[in-house]
Design goal:
Number of strands: 8
Distance between the termini: 53 Å
Radius of gyration: 25 Å
Number of domains: 4
CATH topology of the largest domain: Rossmann fold
CATH class of the largest domain: Alpha Beta
Strand order of the largest sheet: 5-6-7-4-8
Bound molecules: adenosine-5'-diphosphate, magnesium ion
Oligomer: single chain
Length: 457
């Protein structure tokens, strides 16, 4: 019998896997290949069974259900002793692997080195780096009061405002300060609401609701970001409500952010809404000119660099949408300046600003959404918009309705017309998906990936 060393076996497995992958790539659509298969590894071959590692549960389930037959058939073309495939989840093979588009944004944020695994908080969101101005003064003062009086002063604390205005920074900053000030005696926990939803979905499917109850109810300060995403997800809302009550009754602090006020989250259950309204609700608005200048100066100081006043003035005058946009433009300008040996003219700066702003404000269109869904499922837009009723087309079509509504806020009659259907069909499709997304993590993941592909373009 031939005995192989580990390295020989590894090389052999890699070569075999490369051949198999090349072959699979020819047989399925590119987005599907990139999304599901590319990030996989053949890690073992033994007794006619090969073991394939995937980076997370979603992809394991998906690949196992959809592609195991295909993979087995192809594998057998190269080695007919293979009889069986075993799929496992093991992310140790995938850490730091670039190009994995399986990570959704919250998974990425968890991978950030500055994120404390215990609390979920990122230390970059500090009180020191938070610039205060008229647009966030109220929210800032409330934050200070909460840090001093955890659980007793403003509870729950609900902060809302548009994208990139500093909600995440503010609520994480409260958590970080509490953590430092009370030396871990008071336990904060930061959770994006998508993560909360995911945990609930997982627990329901695995019948482990008790784990979740324990995990969340053991916390002293619960910080939930972007709560608007749980609106309409019944089970998640239910669990959140119970978690909320149990924490609240024990004087634990609850901090919530949202892109809109509670009364404008249409699907939010009434009892949750009135709970929020029982605490303090404040908004963060758009930064004025003075504040934009202060933010730019602050960031320059953090990065240990500077710019001429006329360039700072130009950025502050032209970049108004939000703080994230200011940061983006500023980073580009600093980068440009550094590559040019420290010099940048006002017209260079202006050009960078104009280009960046255009890109950021590029609007997403209904065509792009249809194309993203069509690419993802490898179904032509014509088929998607046709009258065909096969199962393979129905779900993608419903996802289009869902995304047109979620992303563009289009009316049902308009969506119906777009798809050659009446508005009741559109309503039904939307409701079906928003209901299902909650119970079906594969669907949830598909939609996340499609959304990512839309925003990435
Ligand atoms: P939101 O959660 O409202 O979308 P973020 O909190 O993610 O916005 O803020 C976007 C970016 O702007 C982050 O990098 C954040 O650190 C920065 N930022 C927001 N508000 C401020 C502020 N008041 N001072 C300094 N930086 C800020
Ligand atoms: Mg945020």
């Amino acid at each position: 019998m031939e005995i192989k060393t580990d390295t020989e076996l590894n090389t052999e497995l890699n070569t075999l896997w490369k051949k198999i992958l090349n072959n699979i790539e020819l047989q399925i659509s590119k987005p599907n290949f990139v999304t599901w298969i590319k990030n996989s590894l053949l890690i073992d071959k033994n007794d006619g069974c090969i073991t394939i590692a995937l980076p997370n549960n979603f992809s394991k389930e998906w690949v196992e259900n959809k592609y195991s037959k295909l993979i087995l058939n192809i594998a057998r073309e190269y080695d007919n002793s293979i009889k069986k495939i075993n799929f496992i989840v093991d992310n140790k093979y995938f850490i730091n692997q670039k190009g994995s588009n399986i990570d959704s944004s919250f998974e990425k944020s968890i991978l950030d080195l500055r994120v404390d695994p215990e609390t979920g908080l990122n230390s970059k969101y500090s009180l020191k780096s938070f610039v205060v101005g008229s647009s966030n003064e109220l929210a800032y003062n409330a934050a200070l009061a909460i840090i001093q009086n955890v659980g007793t002063k403003y509870n729950p604390f609900f902060v809302y405002g548009g994208v990139g205005l500093g909600k995440t920074h503010l609520i994480q900053m409260i958590g970080n300060e509490i953590k430092n000030l009370y030396k871990n005696k008071i336990k904060p926990k930061y959770v994006p609401s998508e993560k909360f939803t995911n945990d609930v979905v997982w627990a329901i499917r695995n019948k482990r609701m008790d784990d979740i109850k324990k995990k969340y109810r053991d916390i002293d300060v619960l910080i939930i970001d972007d709560i608007q995403f749980i609106g309409g997800k019944e089970k998640t809302e239910e669990e959140f409500f119970h978690t909320f009550n149990s924490l609240y009754e024990n004087n634990k602090q609850i901090i919530i952010s949202s892109d809109r006020p509670p009364q404008s989250i249409p699907t939010l259950e009434e009892r949750l809404r009135s709970r929020f309204e029982g605490g303090l609700i404040v908004d963060i608005t758009y930064p004025d000119y003075e504040m934009r200048v202060a933010i730019i100066k602050n960031k320059l100081q953090e990065k240990n660099t500077n710019l001429n006043d006329n360039i700072i003035d130009l950025i502050a005058k032209k970049v108004k949408k939000n703080i994230r946009e200011i940061e983006g433009v500023l980073n580009k300008i600093i980068f440009y300046k550094e590559t040019k040996g420290g010099n940048i003219t006002i017209s260079d700066a202006e050009e960078i600003i104009n280009k960046t702003i255009q890109n950021i404000s590029k609007k997403i269109t209904d065509k792009q959404i249809i194309k993203a869904v069509s690419d993802f499922f490898n179904i032509t837009p014509e088929d998607l918009l046709s009258n065909k009723r096969n199962k393979e087309i129905v779900e993608p079509r419903q996802i289009i309705v869902y995304l047109l509504r979620e992303i563009l806020d289009l009316s049902y009659p308009y969506i119906g017309e777009k798809l050659g259907r009446d508005h009741t069909t559109a309503i039904h499709a939307y409701e079906k998906i928003s209901n299902e997304i909650n119970k079906n993590s594969t669907l949830y993941q598909k939609i996340l990936l499609i959304k990512e592909s839309i925003y990435k373009e």
